[in-house]
Every structure is written in structure tokens, then in C-alpha cells.
Write a structure and sequence with these properties.
It contains 18 helices and 15 strands. It has about 425 residues and is an alpha/beta fold.
């Protein structure tokens, strides 16, 4: 089908969500006009430069460059497209509520002329859509929250398990038009009201975060009773009422979605008069989990004053350079607070991390970070760490001790290389450090 036969798409905001949305709709054959207020970012994209690390995104933008237009001009966007996806950031404020200033700025720039459809991809509190509808009475409004995972966002967009479309009955035609955009992708279309669509996003992320905090608590109990949390999680996951997903223990969740959305839902409930006790516990467990690594290190090393600790990985998860709410931020600060010297390596996130980790020495390779280290902590499960020359690493370190914060490495292989190994919720492997 010729691109001119498909509806033009407008995208407002070319951050991570906006770029993925623009590139994927272009891949589906739609002409896309993407607008952002930052001229430097727009100029870079028009030159074909993509600074966001997301597998497959740069290639997709290059492949579909003839369908993609990047601009700072709102009039150009409004003249070129009727379906407008809002993909601006809604970061937490100091109170923990979502900062909707960017959303409000977009609304203020729009013309409620009856021809356009405003489609909200940004994560907003339940009730936001109804407020916007009152502010733009002449424009149809649809809530279509994103469920993309960093590191697999392109795949998630093109192969969704579901697409949520929320609209008022008066905007049913607009909802049908949005649903039609996604029908070729094969995911189930969930047609609902605006507030329910907004809640589906928050509730989904809060539930997944709850599973992570739950299995981390189970891992901590496993350490006390000598059980292996890997076996426990596997046995749990075989129950089809539970399933295997998000039952991997570690040193806490981070990123742009889970921490923000869990706090946002807790505050939304509190502002409505309901005390969401479960989410308080989820947040508390996650924060404490990031600090447990320090206890594991002191168990082996005693005082950390003057000890050199290498962090392997800094991003909140592999295949992204995102440092938002990354466990490395809390861990490095806590280690330095204990008097440790902290060095680090990450394959892609170090440029973003430098300003966030003052006093942390960045190294160009993992082996360089491990040079003369008293201990290493696996923070982010990058695949290259599994294939690292661990024999060579042991020879470089003052003490071959590793805390595997993601249960990612081969404990037996590390033992053979001479390491003292400790994971999360797993029986101890390796020799005791003297």
C-alpha cells in the first residue's frame, strides 16, 4: 500500500516514546510529522542522528526517512496530520505526583477545531483526560497508553499483546480510528472509557513492580533458610495462575516507568482518600533491596573504608542507556558513604552516568574497572559480562569477590576461576575471603 493511502500521523515529543511511535508508524506506511520544542534535537534527527540507545530504532528511522518529518513548528504539524499522539514526559514532582506541565503546554498550543484527534500516549493520572476534554471542547480525545519496554520497544510496538483505547462515547469515531491504526499489528484491542484506560497503565506497572518486590523478599528469606530462590521461582512459575514473568530477584527495579507509576498510583489513591498500603511496602522493599549489596560486601570485607569496589553495569537494565532510578545511583552513593573507592563500567550508559555519579571513576572496559578491585558488583545484566574473561579478571583483582546483583553469572564458572561468589537468594558458592 502506498504511504499516501494511509492516514498521516502527528507525534508531539520526540523522546524515547515519541521516536519509537514515529518510527514504527512510518514502518507501517504512514507519513509521520514529529514535533518537538527543542530545535537542537529536531536538527539532529533531520540529519539522521539518533542519540537514544534503543535496539533497532536508528535503523528503522534511517529506513523510513522519506516518511518522517521532524519539526519545531506546531502549525506544520496541525496542517499535516489530524491524528496527534502526545508523547511528552510526565516526570515525578518533589511530591511524587506526575508533572503535567509539558502536557498542559501541548494543550495550550493546540487549536480545538473539530478536525483533529488528540491521542494521549504519555502516562497521566486517572482523570487527566476528562480535564483535557473540558479544556479542548472542540477536539476529540483518546487515551492510548504505551506499554513499551526499554531495550525491546520496537518489537513491543510492532507485536503488542494488547492496545488500550479509551474514549468518551461522544468520541467513538475517533476511538475507532485509533484502533484501526493498530489492527494490523494483531494485538487485542481493549476499548474502554478514558479513566479506565489511564488506570490500566498505572495498575499494570504497579502490579509488575509488586511481583519484583515480592520475589526479592522471598530471595531474602531464602538466604536465611538456605533455599535457592531460582528453584523457588521456577517452581512457582509453573503454576499457570502465577506464571514465570517478573519473578527474577535482584537489587531492585528502576527506570522511567515502575518507580514513577507506583508512586503516582499510591498518591492518586491517597489524594482520593484511600491509603494504598501494599504499594507503600513495594516501594520500601525496593529501596532496601538496593542497599543489601553493601551488607553483603561488609560481610566479606569488613569495613569498606579504602576498599576499591567495581560496578559492572550502570543503566537500570541492559540494552538501554537510561539511568533514571537506576540501582547504581543508590548503590554507588551508599558505597562512597561507607568510605569505598568506586569504579565502574557500562557498555553504553557512561556518558549519561558521569554527571549523576560524582566521585565514581569511569573505565573504558570491564577488565580495567576490575584492576586492583577488592570486590565487583554485577549491577546490570549486560550479555558481555557473562562472556567476560573471568580468569583474567581474577588475576587483576586484589580479592576475587563478586556480588551478582542479578543472578546472571555462572556461579560454577566463577568458582573455577577462583572467585568468592554471592548472588541474591542463592546458596553461597566459592571460597571464603580471608
Amino acid at each position: 500500500m502506498n504511504s499516501s493511502e494511509k492516514a498521516p500521523i502527528g507525534v508531539i515529543g520526540v523522546g524515547w516514546v515519541g521516536l519509537v511511535t514515529a518510527a514504527c508508524f512510518a514502518e507501517l506506511g504512514h507519513p509521520v510529522i514529529a514535533r518537538d520544542v527543542m530545535a537542537e534535537k529536531v536538527d539532529s534527527l533531520n540529519r539522521g542522528e539518533v542519540t537514544i540507545h534503543e535496539p533497532g530504532l536508528g535503523e528503522l528511522i534511517l529506513k523510513n526517512k522519506d516518511r518522517l518529518t521532524f519539526t519545531t513548528d506546531m502549525d506544520e504539524l496541525l496542517e499535516g496530520a489530524k491524528l496527534l499522539f502526545v508523547c511528552v514526559d510526565t516526570p515525578p514532582t518533589y511530591s511524587g505526583d506526575a508533572d503535567l506541565s509539558r502536557v498542559r503546554s501541548v494543550v495550550a498550543d493546540l487549536r480545538a477545531d473539530g478536525d483533529h484527534v488528540l491521542i494521549m500516549k504519555s502516562t497521566v493520572p486517572a482523570g487527566t483526560g476528562e480535564t483535557i476534554r473540558r479544556d479542548l471542547p472542540g477536539m476529540a480525545y483518546v487515551s492510548c497508553p504505551e506499554f513499551l519496554k526499554e531495550g525491546s520497544a520496537v518489537e513491543d510496538f510492532l507485536h503488542p499483546d494488547r492496545v488500550v483505547v479509551g474514549a468518551d462515547p461522544a468520541d467513538s469515531e475517533a476511538a475507532a480510528a485509533v484502533a484501526a491504526l493498530y489492527e494490523p499489528l494483531g494485538g487485542e484491542i481493549v476499548l474502554t472509557d478514558i479513566s479506565s484506560a489511564e488506570m490500566i497503565k498505572l495498575a499494570s506497572n504497579a502490579y509488575l513492580a509488586t511481583r519484583i518486590s515480592f520475589i526479592n523478599e522471598i530471595a531474602n528469606v531464602c538466604e536465611e533458610v538456605g533455599a535457592d530462590v531460582g528453584e523457588v521461582a521456577r517452581g512457582m512459575g509453573l503454576d499457570d495462575r502465577i506464571g514465570p514473568h517478573f519473578l527474577r530477584p535482584g537489587i531492585g527495579f528502576g527506570g522511567s516507568c515502575f518507580p514513577k507509576d507506583v508512586n503516582a498510583l499510591k498518591l492518586l489513591a491517597g489524594n482520593s482518600g484511600y491509603h494504598f498500603q501494599l504499594l507503600n511496602s513495594v516501594i520500601e522493599v525496593n529501596e532496601l533491596q538496593k542497599r543489601r549489596v553493601v551488607s553483603k560486601l561488609t560481610k566479606h570485607l569488613g569495613s569498606l573504608v579504602g576498599r576499591r569496589v567495581a560496578l559492572l553495569g550502570l543503566a537500570f537494565k541492559p540494552d538501554t542507556d537510561d539511568m533514571r532510578e537506576a540501582s547504581s545511583l543508590v548503590l554507588s552513593a551508599r558505597l562512597r558513604g561507607e568510605g569505598a573507592e568506586v569504579v565502574a563500567f557500562d557498555p553504553v550508559a557512561m556518558d549519561n552516568a558521569r554527571s549523576l555519579l560524582p566521585g565514581v571513576e569511569m573505565k573504558e572496559t570491564a577488565l580495567a574497572a576490575l584492576e586492583n578491585a577488592d570486590a565487583a558488583v554485577l549491577v546490570t545484566e549486560w550479555s558481555e559480562f557473562r562472556e567476560l574473561d573471568w580468569d583474567g579478571a581474577a588475576a587483576r583483582m586484589r580479592r576475587p569477590l563478586i556480588i551478582d546483583g542479578r543472578n546472571f553469572l555462572d556461579a560454577d564458572k566463577l568458582h573455577e576461576s577462583g572467585f568468592t561468589y554471592e548472588g541474591i537468594g542463592r546458596p553461597g558458592v566459592g571460597t571464603e575471603t580471608e
